[in-house]
Amino acid sequence: MSWELLLWLLALCALLLLVVQLLRFLWADGDLTLLWAEWQGRRPEWELTDMVVWVTGASSGIGEELAYQLSKLGVSLVLSARRVHELERVKRRCLENSNLKEKDILVLPLDLTDIGSHEAATKAVLQEFGRIDILVNNGGVSQRSLCMDTSLDVYRKLIELNYLGTVSLTKRVLPYMIERKQGKIVTVNSLLGIIAAPLSSGYCASKHALRGFFNSLRTELATYPGIIVSNICPGPVQSNIVANSLTGEVTKTVGNGGHQSYKMATSRCVRLMLISMANDLKEVWISEHPILAAAYLWQYMPTWAWWITNKMGKKRIENFKSGVDADSSYFNILKRKRD
Ligand SMILES: NC(=O)c1ccc[n+]([C@@H]2O[C@H](COP(=O)([O-])OP(=O)(O)OC[C@H]3O[C@@H](n4cnc5c(N)ncnc54)[C@H](OP(=O)(O)O)[C@@H]3O)[C@@H](O)[C@H]2O)c1
């Protein structure tokens, strides 16, 4: 074979690869590394069985669905949040739909903002199961309010709950993982921990802070390759997050969750989270377009990202001010894609 022919073949292969990647990207609902892991990587069914998994925010939304999918994998579960009756409901459903027994699920009430209680909570888990293989930092709240209309108490609450609460619990659990030289710390961050959007300045700040903290922590744990620190960054997912979002006042929540149909199904988001855990991925992005495309733009072409975000953001603020669902500026695109 001549050199010329070989070069042409190589160029053709490179072009084909580019086209395949582009097509994969157009249909993606997660970053391409995650989707590769879903196709070729390790299965949660092989990797996560028999683990002790502590999930915060397990009384609703993503944490609740996580409990259901994890229970089917045969793990031992610790379910934490503030509302015990909701946790008991989740536990009952886990027991009904899996082979787990009563002794395999511990309901452990926990307020993430009550950092004084985190040490006792950690000890209670260790007393029950002897170890913590995976800590899923999932509990949190969001925000829907313009900065100028938002009291400082709201910013304080978002940082105390989403950031400091998560850091505090992680600091309690980490020594036991270091002792065993293994464990996974999985934090449900958000694409708003990477990109930014109006109406969520305090939420964005708390999630950006979390990403910085865990990325830095990972570098400190480089001598412990068995301890995996993962950031999970979802876009819009069906849950109660909008209904529970703080408004300008710390005592008031949005109350109405608005449209959910355009958001990713909670079950799909959680399946991708499990794939990430099984494959020890450091950071994953879980979202459909156009939010996923926006994340790639923010990462690789920030100037374009600012231009598009400002355009979409303007509409988002207009919708919010006129009492329409703030996200309806882009949810029509997603709806059209689905129909
Ligand atoms: N859904 C989305 O579109 C989306 C997108 C990106 C990221 N996320 C992230 O996903 C995580 C889960 O949210 P979700 O969407 O499932 O919302 P959700 O349905 O509102 O669930 C939030 C969970 O957090 C718990 N929580 C709230 N305040 C708490 C506190 N002080 N102490 C302990 N637990 C507390 C809630 O339980 P109690 O009220 O019983 O305490 C509930 O179980 C959050 O970190 C959120 O930022 C969600």
Automatic annotation (TrEMBL):
Entry-linked PANTHER family: DEHYDROGENASE/REDUCTASE SDR FAMILY MEMBER 7-RELATED, DEHYDROGENASE_REDUCTASE SDR FAMILY MEMBER 7
Q: What would you give as a GO molecular function for this chain, any one?
A: carbonyl reductase (NADPH) activity
State the family it belongs to.
Belongs to the short-chain dehydrogenases/reductases (SDR) family.
Q: Name one GO cellular component term.
A: endoplasmic reticulum membrane
Q: Does the keyword Oxidoreductase apply?
A: yes
Q: Which organism is it from?
A: Callithrix jacchus (White-tufted-ear marmoset)
Tell me which UniProt keywords the record has, alphabetically: Oxidoreductase
Q: What is this protein called?
A: Dehydrogenase/reductase 7
Q: Which InterPro entries match?
A: NAD(P)-bd_dom_sf, Sc_DH/Rdtase_CS, SDR_fam, SDR_family_member_7
Fetch the PROSITE patterns from UniProt: ADH_SHORT
Asked if the Swiss-Prot or TrEMBL record annotates the protein with the keyword Oxidoreductase, the reply is yes
Organism phylogeny: Eukaryota, Metazoa, Chordata, Craniata, Vertebrata
